[in-house]
Protein: Alcohol dehydrogenase 1
Amino acid sequence: MQRKGDACPPGPGDCRVERGRGRREAQGFITLVCRGDRSTMSTAGKVIKCKAAVLWETNKPFSIEEVEVAPPRAHEVRIKMVATGICRSDDHVVSGHIVSPFPVILGHEAAGIVESIGEGVTSVKPGDKVIPLFIAQCGKCRRCKHQESNICMKNDLPSKYQGKLQDGTTRFTCRGKSIHHFMGTSTFSQYTVVDEISVAKIDAASPLEKVCLIGCGFSTGYGSAVKVAKVTQGSTCAVFGLGGVGLSVIIGCKAAGAARIIAVDINKDKFAKAREVGATECVNPQDYDKPIEEVLQEMSNGGVDFSFEVIGRLDTMASALLCCDKSFGVSVIVGVPPDSQILPVDPMLLLTGRTLKGAIFGGFKSKDSVPKLVTDFMAKKFPLDPLITNVLPLEKINEGFDLLRSGKSIRTILSF
Ligand code: PAD
Ligand code: ZN
Ligand code: ZN
Structure:
């Protein structure tokens, strides 16, 4: 029983609050009917059994399994997932390009509703709409306190992925085995548990099936242009790679007032969408018999102002660096490089004044910025619809990854 007016806590089924006609109801009580699982009135404090896509090893399909999700401990939040995008970084773990411990529940670009909270949690409450943050923000460490940094010291990032929550344990079990988390988020599951420093409350009116992209792809690309490169009015930009992240870089370059935005991809099917979001020219390196950096230098009278590598390859990182002006050019690495590989750089390329930099999550401090980005989306300051090409149920996750690998999708949203 709940008091009249209480919010229906999200349950494993499709819960709703109904008015009854008995004496208690007449006193202001209402009856909570849980449609999916009528036995469960509230799931808080209990283990939830639900479906998740588990990856048991590299280069294998995801397996839809029943998993047990333990209740949140102190300073943790359990979230009922509503929508999650498929990002190339998830696929990098499948292929071994990013090394992370197995078995694992991937997914890091999502939106959902808080189901329950652990002791001491103050920034969210059950029923709040939230976005999990794959870059945490504790707000207290040296880097959180630094104005420019967004890499909180509590992050679980490459070179030392632990696949655990802050207390060093996991909340997922499947077939009696403990399942690893991924970057503190693990959104390919009907329910997930995250640390409070890895979740942001967002506008209650926001459409979760769209703003989930603010959890990674959109913010990463957009921030790389407006915050990391600091693209200037009237400038010329080159964007290598036209996936969900690259297109978001273009949206950012356009918002910053770039005069020319040259989109580069070997898949010409991506060009129409790139133009739709703001590219002024599109080039396919395979159409030329000279290196793409020379083509871009010629197109820009000696070198572009800003270049972005949004693929995750060493050769295109080198081309992006070389195509920007040798004196004032700024080149930003956004794509995640293959594990343990080195990019040799002739220091002369930098001695003349070029800047080479990189950023995760567009340089945004996550917990501070995500709610603001959602507000900006609601105020129509940027679009997300062009990035969403497919919507599938979680059960069809493997189909979603095939669409990404074959270059046929931008973002597939998995719905729950
Ligand atoms: P995606 O696979 O949707 O897009 C990559 C694009 O690159 C595709 O359109 C390809 O056709 C194109 N491409 C591939 N090879 C070449 C080539 N040799 N020359 C030109 N174009 C090529 O990926 P995405 O947009 O989801 O992610 C892009 C990268 O960004 C990927 O490496 C991902 O791991 C990384 C990423 N980084 C962050 C971050 O915080 N830095 C966040 C999210 C994603
Ligand atoms: Zn991502
Ligand atoms: Zn911190």
About this structure: DSSP finds twelve helices and 20 strands in the chain. Residues 137-138, 140-141, 143-144, 152-154 surround zinc ion (ligand 3) (CB under 6 Å).
